[in-house]
Design a protein that fits this description.
The protein is of the alpha+beta class and about 200 residues long. Helix content is about 30%, strand content about 20%. The protein has five helices and eight strands. Helix 1 packs across helix 3. It is globular, with a radius of gyration of 16 Å. The two termini are about 30 Å apart. The relative contact order is 0.13. Bound molecules: coenzyme A (COA). Coenzyme A binds next to helix 2, strand 5, helix 4 and helix 5.
């Protein structure tokens, strides 16, 4: 692993309606899309303010943070685009959201990544978060050997919790997480994962 990883601009994980690809710091489309996504009212209500409010800041964030995750884990935050038709190329598709598998660096990292997602408000309620998350989980298991995955969401975040249930994760209770500044979060995990989550680094 390490810095030899190249995020190919033509790589995509395909699902029925979606394409999942790397965020590219030199793509004005990707940078402007991230600004739009992260500054929507819905996003800021559940995920807070990121401070990424210009294309330049988005480009720096993608280069310095997102690509560091790709290099370290071969996964991270991916762009989700909607295909206009079944056999569309990536260039023909329209960005509508993001889906991510994230595992931080010690000491603030657990031994399994967590799955996350965000979609433009006008595209929610159509099953896209569920479809993208299932495709990313299948890819990560098959190609990268990832078979332990967490899901974390705010305790009142019903849409997000519903997605975690629909992709097959189990509710394991509310816990205070070191990854989100000690805030209490609803913790979900794949059913095959030990009931004792301390083995993944979660405190009791
Ligand atoms: C959470 C989020 C990603 C869900 O995306 P989505 O594509 O709508 O998810 P899905 O359609 O796959 O499933 C969402 C579930 O919530 C329901 N839902 C989503 N939006 C809804 C709405 N506006 N009104 C009513 N129900 C809604 C869906 O009906 C579905 O449940 P169901 O299958 O039982 O009907 C999206 O609302 C979002 O981006 N929110 C802002 C960012 C965020 O909260 N990210 C996660 C926190 S880290």
């Amino acid at each position: 692993m390490g810095s030899v990883f190249e995020a190919s601009p033509t790589f995509s994980i395909e699902s029925e309606r979606l394409q999942i690809s790397y965020f590219l710091p030199d793509s004005p489309e990707h940078c402007l899309f991230l600004v739009e996504l992260w500054n929507s009212e819905e996003f800021m209500k559940t995920c807070g303010r990121t401070g990424i409010d210009t294309a330049e800041k988005a480009s720096n964030f993608i280069r310095n943070r997102v690509h560091t995750d790709y290099a370290r884990n071969h996964y991270g935050m991916f762009l989700v685009s909607l295909k206009p038709h079944e056999h569309a190329s990536l260039a023909e598709s329209t960005p509508i959201g993001s889906v991510s598998l994230m595992r931080g660096e010690p000491p603030n990292a657990y031994l399994a990544p967590d799955i996350g997602y965000a979609f433009l408000t006008k595209e929610t309620g159509k099953g896209y978060a569920t479809e993208a998350a299932l495709a990313l989980l299948a890819y990560a298991k098959k190609e990268l050997g990832v078979d332990s995955v967490f899901g974390f969401c705010g305790t009142g975040d019903t849409y997000s919790a519903r997605v975690l249930e629909k992709i097959g994760l189990e509710f394991r209770g509310p816990k205070k997480l070191k990854v989100f500044g000690g805030r209490e979060s609803a913790v979900y995990a794949l059913p095959i994962m030990s009931q004792d989550l301390t083995v993944y680094g979660l405190d009791d």
